[in-house]
Amino acid sequence: MTEASRADFAPPVTVALTGASGAQYGLRLIDCLVAANHEVWVMISKAAHLVIDTETDCRLPAQPQRLTEALSERSGARAGQIRCFARADWMAPVASGSGAPSSMVICPCSTGTLSAVATGASNNLIERAADVALKERRQLILVPREAPLSAIHLEHMLALTRMGAVILPAAPGFYHRPASVDDMIDFIVARILNQLGVEHALLPRWGERE
Ligand SMILES: Cc1cc2nc3c(=O)[nH]c(=O)nc-3n(C[C@H](O)[C@H](O)[C@H](O)COP(=O)(O)O)c2cc1C
């Protein structure tokens, strides 16, 4: 990694991975934001670590500094480009409207975290950061993955949509004829990047020739 100052980076985006299936969406999103030169502030829930271990070959430490180093090495981030925060680090900038970035993505988003955000629980830093995004009217994107959906899940999604959050289900389309799992991951990550206004070349936009 080379040294870089904050001014070298595009604005920070908060990315939280929670314990829904689809850890690769969140990891790929971090890689793409790093490639687009954004600063990325990361939180990974306990259950998300378990899902990452189950679904990927990626082994990530829980301790924030070691996690920062591991994610930076994985994505080729420059020094200071990725910052990771612990579950109860209430002193982290994401815990306050004065310090939180203008965009936050929870990807993947468990139904547990979905419910906590919809009801304002704020019992851990991910939930608190999402609560801050809502109260400050900042961009909040949730990428839930569950099937089937109960009335509780649907009601929470509707409540969050009405509060201004974007519900972007991890439901890849097939009209680009994905040839691999990576193509299906990129389908969802491209949708998230579109929402964030981050340029990418993961997929052609509809109406553009391939
Ligand atoms: C391998 C694995 C897959 C899981 N898949 C899902 C899922 O797709 N959706 C979901 O809402 N919860 C899923 N869970 C359950 C959540 O991890 C669990 O409800 C947890 O409490 C969520 O905590 P968090 O929101 O703090 O990450 C899964 C758990 C494991 C271990």
Automatic annotation (TrEMBL):
This is Flavin prenyltransferase UbiX. Flavin prenyltransferase that catalyzes the synthesis of the prenylated FMN cofactor (prenyl-FMN) for 4-hydroxy-3-polyprenylbenzoic acid decarboxylase UbiD. The prenyltransferase is metal-independent and links a dimethylallyl moiety from dimethylallyl monophosphate (DMAP) to the flavin N5 and C6 atoms of FMN. FMN binds at G19, A20, S21, S45, S110, T111, G112, T113, R145. Keywords: Flavoprotein, FMN, Prenyltransferase, Transferase. HAMAP family: ubiX_pad. Gene3D superfamilies: Flavin prenyltransferase-like. PANTHER family: FLAVIN PRENYLTRANSFERASE, FLAVIN PRENYLTRANSFERASE PAD1, MITOCHONDRIAL. It catalyses: dimethylallyl phosphate + FMNH2 = prenylated FMNH2 + phosphate. Belongs to the UbiX/PAD1 family. Its EC number is 2.5.1.129.
